[in-house]
Every structure is written in C-alpha cells, then in structure tokens.
Amino acid sequence: HPSGRVSGMLGPSQIDTCTPELLRNSLKAAQERGLKVHLHAAQSVVEFNEITRRYGMTPIEWLDHVGILGPDLIVAHGIFLNDHPWIKWPQADDFALLAGSGAQVAHCPNVFVRRGIALNAVARYQKAGITVGLGTDTFPHNMIDEMRTGCHAARIVRGDFTACSTADIYRAATLDGAKMLNRSDIGRIAVGAKADFSLVDLDHPYMKPVREPLRSLIFSASDRAIRDVYVGGEQVVSKGEVLRIDVDKALA
Predict the structure, then answer these.
(1) How far is CA 34 from each of CA 28, 124, 182, 191, rounded to the nearest angstrom?
(2) Cα 137 vs. chain centroid, distance in angstroms?
(3) C-alpha radius of gyration, the chain, whole number
(4) How far from the centroid of its chain's Cα atoms is residue 229's Cα?
(5) What 3 state SS string does the chain have?
(6) 199: β partners
(7) In terms of pTM, does the model score above 0.70?
(8) How far apart, in Å, are the Cα atoms of 48 and each of 60, 78, 88, 97, 107?
(9) Residues 94-106: tens digit of each pLDDT
(10) Which of 86, 102, 105, 101 is nearest to 48 (CA)?
C-alpha cells in the first residue's frame, strides 16, 4: 500500500487443514517475495491430538519435519507445546526446537484467556530467544488490555509474579511485533523511525501516583489516560476524540 502501512503475508490457515505441499509452496512463494508465512499451529488441544494421531509428532515437530519451521514463519499461537501443563507429551522437546528454529510466535492473550487457556509463558519464550509479538485477534482491539492480560496469565501459569514483567510484555507489543514484520521503522521512538506515538495524561486519576508510569498505564488506567495519538507524525486522536472518523455516525 502506498502508505507503507499495509503489506502482505502468505496465510495458509492452520496445520491440521493444510497439506504439506501447500505449506511448502506457501513458504517458497513468501521467500521469493520477501514476505512471511503466518500459520495457526499449536493453538488447541484438539489440534495437538489430531497431529500426533496422524503423524506421531507434535505440531512443532511436524512443522520442522515438513521443512517450514524457520525464521520466515510466524506461528499463531504456539501455545500447546509438548510441555504445556495440559499436554504432558514427554517424547518431544518443542520448546528447544522452536527456540532453535528462529520462528516467531504471535501471542493473543485475551481471546484465549476467555476460554481458560494461556501461553506458558511470555517471558519464558523471550528468555529462550523466541520472538513474541503481541496481537489482539478479537474485539475490542485494545493493545493495553492485551498487555495486562498477557502479564496476568503468564504469572498465574508459571506460579511466579516475575514470569512476565511490564517491560517484557511492552516489548512484545512494540519492538518485537515490529521485528516479526521485518520493520525497524516502527515499534520504537528513534531518529529515522515513523513518528508513531501516544501521549498519556499523567494527571489522570488512574495514573496516580506517577511512580511507575508503564505499570499505571497497563494495570490501572488502560486507554482512559490516552490523550493524543499520532501516526506518521499526523494527529489522529486529540484529547481522547478520534479526528478521522465520525464516531456517532458510524455507531448509528
């Protein structure tokens, strides 16, 4: 797209409904175009059981066997590895295989937490060198809420309040999300990067006291304290009001 904001991916739907040939052809076509492949895998117990029934391998092992588990693959959602508490499949080491492959994981906490499912866990993946990018995948598309849910879910699953820090989840929502898209000009404030940023009202009651602004934003204020938003240097939200859309008309 001329804006530089919208590009393409190859998106075969999910590993239990795609043939090996389709997946290999998708990867080849993506690599020829400098794109990524986005594929749902390790996203449900049903899928895990089906892949192991068919092939005697876990979903992650099967992706490696097919030859597409690598840096050009974004795995959505990469939850049910063999060592997930709900699986306990001892014959594999999906975590090490995933970490060594260079494949990335698209993590969407809210849509799964609503079903009582959680990744095991964000910071664990990050510390192993697995790039985790945060997504929404369901309404409302509120990235701050996704950050909060991702933190809470990780801490509960691991039984450890250090299992995911605000810095860990913020990185997934910004720098690492951009990295997964092969973009160094978004996800950060830096010379030469896109002027994409939000201004947070530190005087908002839910931001007080201003000791840890990022924690206050994620765990307390959420989008209520977002005052202004700029995209590419152009203001699109002013004092909480959207400038580009007639919201009342759209609602009507």
Answers:
(1) 10, 29, 9, 25
(2) 9
(3) 19
(4) 21
(5) CCCCCCCCCECCCECCCCCHHHHHHHHHHHHHHCCCEEEEECCCHHHHHHHHHHHCCCHHHHHHHHCCCCCCEEEEECCCCCCCCCCCCCCCCHHHHHHHHCCEEEECHHHHHCCCCCCCCHHHHHHCCCCEEECCCCCCCCHHHHHHHHHHHHHHHHCCCCCCCHHHHHHHHCHHHHHHCCCCCCCCCCCCCCCCEEEECCCCHHHCCCCCHHHHHHHHHHHHHEEEEEECCEEEEECCEECCCCHHHHHC
(6) 228
(7) yes
(8) 9, 11, 11, 16, 17
(9) 999 999 999 999 9
(10) 86
Residue 100 CA, chain-centre distance (Å), reads 19
Convert the pLDDT of each residue in 236-246 to its tens digit.
999 999 999 99
Q: What is the length of the chain?
A: 252
Q: If 0-12 CB within 10 Å is exposed, 13-18 middle and 19+ buried, where does residue 223 land?
A: middle
Tokens at 151, concatenated: 């933190």
Please choose, from the candidates 159, 181, 172, 70, the residue with its C-alpha nearest in 3D space to the C-alpha of residue 122. 172
Under 8 Å between Cβ of 98 and 78: yes
Q: Give residue 138's identity as a one-letter amino acid code.
A: T
Residue 5 has a pLDDT of 85
In 3D, which of 118, 34, 27 has the Cα closest to residue 78?
Answer: 118
Q: How far apart are alpha carbons 80 and 179 in whole angstroms?
A: 23
Q: At residue 245, what is the residue type? A: I
Backbone angle region of 209, left / alpha / beta, with phi > 0 → left and psi within -120 to 50 → alpha:
beta
CB distance 135 to 104 below 8 Å = no
Q: How far apart are CA 129 and CA 124, in angstroms?
A: 9
